[in-house]
Amino acid sequence: MSLKFDSAKKLRKEKSKQKIGSWEEYEQREQEFLKERYQNKEPTITAAVRITAGKAKNFKLDIPRSSRPLTDRMKVKIFDILREDIANKTILDLYAGSGSFGLEALSRGAKESTFVEASRQAILILNKNVAHTGFLPQADVIKSKIEDFLSKKTVKDSTYDIIFLDPPYKLYNTKRVHKMEQIINDVSKLLPGVGNPKKKIFKGALIVKHPRKYPIHFLNLEYIKMIDSYHFGLNSITFFIVK
């Protein structure tokens, strides 16, 4: 599978092969998360999160409190789709938290990963995870609000081949979708195919983690188009490529 070209048909075929087993524990944890969210409590994931493949396979990551890290099931599906597209690519992990996505990418052969996170506590844990996995030379950890980071970045400065976006749930307001729409449009400008549409290069992919019921397909996105979504309990992972 490759995201170099518009491969929606192939993705649908791949999706149809997915075998769903028993995920009672996962579903229970997601229900507990939703319950805590409705009660205005800060949800905390207590399950272990690990690197699922590559150089740092099975390395357990520390997780910041009140975070919703990618589950193993999500990561395996994402990287099954990316496959060879991850090798030697530059990664941008926004709202990075534990750095689970960017570190998984490095473990599987990515060239370098940039992690952007605003929380002081999360930055401490992220730096620890980067050091312990042995990817310090390939990692750039930036403490910044995403909006501030994006306002200082242009396509001329740098681009990223694969961008992962996992915003806090409070930004997924179904009555004020313009906020999320603006963030995704600003983020997509950093994909290589946006600044060089005619050049024969990997144009880039944006992966967004969001609530399953969020109407992400209704957003007015200027530079990218949706390929497919994969559902995991209350959450979904949606793939976009440059138009």
Can you describe what's shown?
This protein is α/β, with parallel strands linked by helices and 243 residues long. The chain has a single domain (21-242), classed as Vaccinia Virus protein VP39 (Rossmann fold, 3-Layer(aba) Sandwich), CATH 3.40.50.150. It contains 8 helices and 9 strands. The protein has helices spanning 8-17, 24-38, 72-82, 100-107, 120-133, 146-152, 178-188, 192-195, and strands at residues 49-50, 60-61, 90-94, 112-117, 139-143, 162-165, 205-211, 224-232, 235-242. The strands form 2 sheets. A 7-stranded mixed sheet has the order 5-4-3-6-7-9-8. The protein has a two-stranded antiparallel ribbon with strand order 1-2. The relative contact order is 0.14.
What is the topological layout?
Elements: H1 8-17, H2 24-38, E1 49-50, E2 60-61, H3 72-82, E3 90-94, H4 100-107, E4 112-117, H5 120-133, E5 139-143, H6 146-152, E6 162-165, H7 178-188, H8 192-195, E7 205-211, E8 224-232, E9 235-242
Parallel strand pairs: 3-4, 3-6, 4-5, 6-7
Antiparallel strand pairs: 1-2, 7-9, 8-9
Brief summary:
With 243 residues, this protein is of the alpha/beta class. The protein has a single domain (21-242), classed as Rossmann fold.
